[in-house]
């Protein structure tokens, strides 16, 4: 089965991991700081905190922003459920705002209509690797005195108005799952420009431990002494995976260039296929495409999905609207809440896209899809 996404591993990755395995550290060691430093080169210098997954990154970001019981978080439903679930786990009420019908990104106008004095965060999702409209969303967040968060699990290496993803919001989260542009197997990170917010994120990912004597309430007991002032969790990304991440980040420009090339080929090859819409792109955005999401019209998405997979092409659907999940239904959310997101979901199909996808494989995808739709 040709997958919709897949990691790209070469000998340099294997050597980097092997070097750590032969060293003194498997978990928290020098590779963690080196990975965070390397990642910050791609966020415009914004410091980063490495964590165990993209989901952990969201949880850490919300915790660092002070999201808790009684707060509200405005976000998109067209995302993996973790974007909303991690806010709900902290006790917040999630307010789902509709998306732009062409990009699938959070609609600033829809978000603005939902902010209240209880809004603690506005969380955008860079759907498919296309950055959201951050200037407008910044205005929405500022009007509510809220934190602007970017769920940039899809968009590391992308830019909005010549500013890199990672520098566009107060907090930015990344994912390094194998289908993403770069991978640490499992892993994620939070970028935070504000030093206090960065410190809260770093502590939350390490049980909330306070080890600096000058910041402890009851210091002086010895070098072993540590305190927990606010609860955290063990979200530490180990050295062995950070070594893989460093190696991968060094090839990010190459990965991005190949994805861009493949997207341009898809655009050209699928331009005149009936019953199909290819992804939109804003003129002021430089995407780093994680997905190639087409929209299949005339109610044929399920048919096309089934026939493509029967042909050995592992297309995917991204995503079930988050509030359709039973856990949110049980909280009172109802279908019909965000019509544009539901319409997008009803037609969306992600075609294979990854750095090692060959032109011949891509041609086969296009030929099979075209034959089905014609």
What do you see in this structure?
This protein is 36% helix and 16% strand. The model has no long low-confidence stretch (mean pLDDT 98). Strands 2-10-9-6-5-3-4 form a 7-stranded mixed beta sheet. Strands 8-7-14 form a 3-stranded antiparallel beta sheet, with no helix packed on it. The protein has a 3-stranded antiparallel beta sheet with strand order 13-15-17. It contains 13 helices and 17 strands. The chain is α/β, with parallel strands linked by helices and 374 residues long. It is globular, with a radius of gyration of 21 Å. The chain has helices at 11-21, 30-40, 54-64, 82-89, 108-112, 134-143, 195-204, 239-249, 252-270, 301-310, 326-329, 339-347, 359-373, and strands spanning 2-3, 48-51, 72-75, 93-96, 119-125, 147-151, 159-160, 163-164, 171-175, 188-192, 209-210, 227-228, 276-277, 285-286, 292-296, 313-314, 348-351. It folds into 2 domains: 2-249, Aspartate Aminotransferase, domain 2, CATH 3.40.640; 252-373, Aspartate Aminotransferase, domain 1, CATH 3.90.1150.
What is the count of DSSP helices, taking H or I runs of 4+ residues?
13
Largest β-sheet summary: 7 strands, mixed
User: Low-confidence stretches at least 5 residues in length (pLDDT < 50)?
Assistant: none
CA-atom Rg in angstroms: 21 Å
What helical percentage do the residues reach?
Answer: 25-40%
- How far apart lie the N and C ends? 23 Å
How many structural domains are formed by the residues?
A: 2
Strand order of the largest sheet: 2-10-9-6-5-3-4
Percentage of residues in DSSP E strands: 15-25%
CATH architecture level-2 label of the largest domain: 3-Layer(aba) Sandwich
Number of strands: 17
Shape: globular
One letter per element, helices H and strands E, the order comes to EHHEHEHEHEHEEEEEHEEHHEEEHEHHEH
């Amino acid at each position: 089965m040709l997958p919709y996404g897949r990691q790209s591993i070469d000998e340099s990755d294997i050597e980097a991991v092997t070097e750590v395995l032969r060293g003194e550290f498997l978990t928290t060691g020098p590779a963690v700081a080196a990975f965070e430093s390397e990642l910050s080169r791609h966020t415009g210098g914004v410091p980063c905190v490495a964590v165990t997954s993209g989901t952990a990154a969201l949880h850490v970001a919300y915790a660092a922003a002070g999201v808790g019981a009684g707060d509200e978080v405005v976000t998109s439903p067209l995302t993996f459920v973790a974007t909303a679930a991690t806010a709900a786990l902290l006790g917040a009420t999630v307010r789902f705002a509709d998306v732009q019908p062409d990009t699938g990104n959070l609609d600033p106008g829809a978000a603005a209509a939902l902010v209240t004095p209880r809004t603690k965060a506005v969380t955008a999702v860079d759907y498919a690797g296309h950055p959201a409209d951050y200037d407008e969303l910044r205005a929405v967040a500022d009007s509510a005195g809220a934190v602007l968060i970017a769920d940039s699990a899809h968009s590391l290496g992308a830019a909005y108005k010549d500013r890199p993803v990672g520098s566009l919001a107060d907090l930015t989260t990344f994912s390094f799952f194998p289908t993403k542009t770069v991978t640490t197997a499992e892993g994620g990170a939070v970028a935070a420009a504000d030093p206090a917010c960065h410190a809260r994120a770093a502590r939350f990912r390490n049980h909330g431990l306070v080890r600096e004597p000058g910041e402890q309430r009851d210091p002086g007991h010895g070098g072993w002494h540590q305190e927990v002032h606010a609860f955290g969790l063990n979200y530490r990304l180990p050295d062995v995976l950070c070594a893989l991440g460093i190696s991968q980040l060094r090839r990010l420009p190459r990965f991005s260039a190949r994805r861009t090339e493949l997207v341009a080929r898809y655009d050209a090859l699928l331009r005149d296929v009936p019953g199909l819409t290819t992804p939109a792109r804003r003129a002021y955005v430089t995407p780093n495409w994680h997905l190639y999401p087409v929209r299949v019209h005339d109610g044929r998405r399920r048919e096309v999905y089934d026939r493509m997979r029967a042909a050995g092409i592992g297309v995917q659907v991204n995503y079930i609207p988050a509030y359709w999940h039973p856990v949110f239904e049980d909280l009172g959310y109802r279908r019909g809440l965000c019509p544009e997101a539901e319409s997008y979901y009803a037609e969306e199909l992600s075609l294979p896209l990854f750095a090692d996808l060959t032109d011949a494989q891509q041609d086969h995808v296009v030929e099979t899809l075209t034959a089905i739709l014609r």
